[in-house]
Each structure stands twice: as C-alpha cells, then as structure tokens.
Amino acid sequence: MKIKPSCLILLSILQIVLPLVLTGCWDSVELNRRAIVSGVAIDRGPSEKEKYRLSFQVIVSEEISGENTRSTSPVSLYTGSGRTMFEALANASRQTARFLSLAHVRVLVISEEFAREGIKDMLDVLERESDTRLTSLMFISRGQPASDLMSTMTVFSKIPANDLVEKLDTTSKQFGYNFRVEVDDVVRGIQTVGGGPIINGVFTTGDRNSADTNDNMKTIAPSAILRVSGMAAFRDDKLKGWLDGNAALGTVLLHNKIKEVPVIVKSPAGGYISFNVYKSQVHLEVQAKDPEHPVITIKITQQAALKESANVLNLTSPQVLEELSGRLTDETRKQIEAAVSAARELKSDYLGFGEAVERRNPRGWKKVRDHWEVVFAHCEVRIEADAVIRHTDMRSNSFQVNK
C-alpha cells in the first residue's frame, strides 16, 4: 500500500508544528511573583472551623541576597486557619502579595497537641500536593506551639528553617542520637503493623519575647535558642510519648542510625571516662517457628575511641582496656534494654521487631499480626553486645602532677 505524497507532507508539517504548540507551562508563575516558603508549622486551632492553623516561614529575598536591603527580618511569618490544611493555605495566601511556593520547604513542624490527635490527614495532603517534597524534614514541637519554632531568629543562619536543618545534621553526625526523619520515612512508619514512626523533637529555650526580633542575633548570648532534643514515639499516627536518654539512644541504635555518640562510664579508679562510639552495627536474628513466642536476638558490635581519662589508669595495659571495654558493653546493653522497655510501655513496636518476624516467618506472621501488641509485650529478647576500644587518641596514660 502506497502512501500519498500529500499525506506525507501533512505528517511532516504536524511533526514540526506540534512541538511548538506544546512547549511551555500553562500554569507557570514567574519567580518574582513567588513567595518561597522555607518552613511550615502546623498547630491545632481552637475549634473545628479553625482546626488547622498553618504558619508559613517566607524568605524575604532582598534581605538574603544583600542587594537593596532594608535592614529588616530575613523571613516573614504568615498564618492561616481553616477546616482543612488546603483552606488554611488559601487563607494565608490572602495576606501576601505573591503566590506561596511550597516546593522549597525544608522543615515541617507539628505541635505536640496535634500529634497526639493524629497526623495521618496531614501526611495525605503532603503526599497528594505536587508542590511539596517528601524529603522535607519533620519535627514535633515539644510542649509549645509549632509556630514558635518558625519565629525564632538564629545566629548561624538568616533563615530559621535552615538553622534547624543544620543543627540536626551536626547533632546526628557527632554528638547525639537524633537523625534525619523525612516525610516519606514517617509515611512508611505509620504503615508498620503494631508500630509507628519516631520523629525528632524540637523546642526553644530562653526569652520568647525577643526570639522573633533581630536583637536575638546581636547579643553574645542569644535570648532564645532552637534545640533539637528527644524523640517522639508514635503508635500508628498518634504520638504516645517522648524518648530521652538511654531509651532514645537505644532506639536509634536499633534502627542503625547512630554515626557518632559520646558515652560516659564510671572508671574503676574513680570518676568517669569518656568514649566516642564512632561505629555501631546492629543485626536482629529471629527464631519464629512458634510465632506466638518468638525469640529476638539483638547482636550489636561497636568501635570506640577513648576521649577523656583524668585518672591514674594504665591505658597501655590490655587488661585495663579489656575491663573498660566490658564497662562500655554494659552501658550499651543498658541502652538497648531501656529502648525495649520504653517501647513495651508505650505499646508500640517502632523498633521493627514485627517486621523481622514477618521476614523470618511470613506465614506465621499472618497468624499474629492482628494481636502483635500482645506478643510484642511478652516475647523473649536477648542482647549480645560487644564493644572494642580501638585507640586512645593522641596519648596513652594521662599526665600526673609531680609532687
């Protein structure tokens, strides 16, 4: 069958013309018409008609770029209320001369009060809205309105949301148990049978009256400081309690999220010895032939460096280092035990034991998934810990004063 020359010409014309017609975005908005939102705070309103109270931290580009500055705040806070999050966003947008752009949101903070009611509906909006990113970091405002976190000026970053992100990165890499928790992590955590997500806690300390002014950045000792502390433990989509100290550290250890963390143990010569645990690996082994009575074995290995030892211990002696390793191991065991105890008390398997049982015995898991909280509360947990002191940094024994 031959194709007529006129058809070939028509097809060629369509191939040339159609790409020109289809280029561009029908809903495009110029950059100078956008208000870039860096952080969002979600608080519980006073009534069902104002259930969602959203505060948007908007970047003032003129103050950030350094051109045509007016010596005003580098960010501005706009708040809207509504029966739904979308309605609250619409009400907030009426206060601005530009379109609120959510594509660059780095931080989402939910108030503790709202988190105890449930956050499922909020996550539905975040997943559904094409402008938002699932890589935004989530926090729970501990004991205060979430909007307070969005209105605290900080020293090291002009944008408070960026300061919060950098604080979390610093804490997770060196000095604590907090780690990056993104929206996508929370969504997957809520879908865990019998468990839930764990989310970083954040709060401000100091004088709230001057926290939202530039004066908070001009003093040697800031009046108000943003602090990342504690982990919010959930059952399904509802906040059940807070984890601190050993319970929080043990929980993050079980999630294999620890990068570096300081550990303090008592010295056999008196006082305390400080270690930096810079490598930690956890592996769960499950015996689940009888899914009603599974046995969870937690195997954890750690490597540490001795950082501080202000005593007369002979740190060149293998016997001394072995004893200190034993004390470090005992401390790790206490952290794991505290984490398991806290999870059972909160009746939430955010530790992932149920998922380990399901991987080991999928058929058996189907028999216990509907009452896993009962099995989780009484299953046997064994801990096999081993910590090794790799080095003592720049010196061995501590110097002593000659008398």
Architecture overview:
With 403 residues, this protein is of the alpha/beta class. The protein has two domains: 30-242, no CATH class; 244-403, GMP Synthetase, Chain A, domain 3, CATH 3.30.300. The protein is built from 13 helices and 13 strands. The chain has helices at residues 5-22, 61-65, 85-93, 112-117, 120-128, 146-150, 160-175, 183-190, 245-254, 318-346, 353-360, 362-368, 372-378; strands at residues 34-44, 52-59, 75-82, 99-101, 107-111, 137-141, 198-206, 224-235, 238-243, 261-266, 272-287, 295-309, 380-391. Strands 1, 2, 3, 4, 5, 6, 7, 8 and 9 form a nine-stranded mixed β-sheet that branches. A four-stranded mixed β-sheet has the order 10-11-12-13. Helix 11 crosses helix 12. The N and C termini lie far apart (110 Å).
